[in-house]
Write a structure and sequence with these properties.
alpha+beta; 4-stranded mixed sheet; 8 helices; 4 strands; 48% helix; elongated; disordered N terminus; Skp1_comp_dimer; SKP1-like protein
Amino acid sequence: MASEAVAVKIQEGVGVDAVVPAAPETSAQRKILLKSAEGEEFLVDELLARGSKMISNMIDDGCTEGGIPLPNVTAPVLSKVLEYWKHHVGKSETDKDAGEFDRDFVKDTSSSVLFDVIMVANYLDCKPLLDLACQAVADAIRDMNVEQVRGFFGITNDFTPDEEAAVREENRWAFD
């Protein structure tokens, strides 16, 4: 039986033993060091790190010495991704707890963090997380009007009133 994958954040000036893992660790578990854009380091079980196809390929290619730099991933978003992986890596897709976790995961995440998670899931090639985050955004905007969607995404309307009227006329079906 494989132990649960556990992420341990290394704090500057503090040893790895500063955080107690949730599952007992065996000497056979290989640890992978992930480095965020800010230089924060996260020591994770190899199984957990393989939640990303990109990182998995780097592990397979032997590119883990000195850690894996993730220059496009901030520490808060990496923590969020690791939280997701802890609940999904090595588990069945039909796990009932996973569905409940997914609902809470996106419900408790602000839209700006969700946008960052989408970017990072794409960068790390983690399709299940990418699909979950994109679906959450799609669900959030489903019943919004144009103005609400613009507000949700922080888009400024740069059409003149005449241009907007022309677009609405051309696409009348979309505004009914």
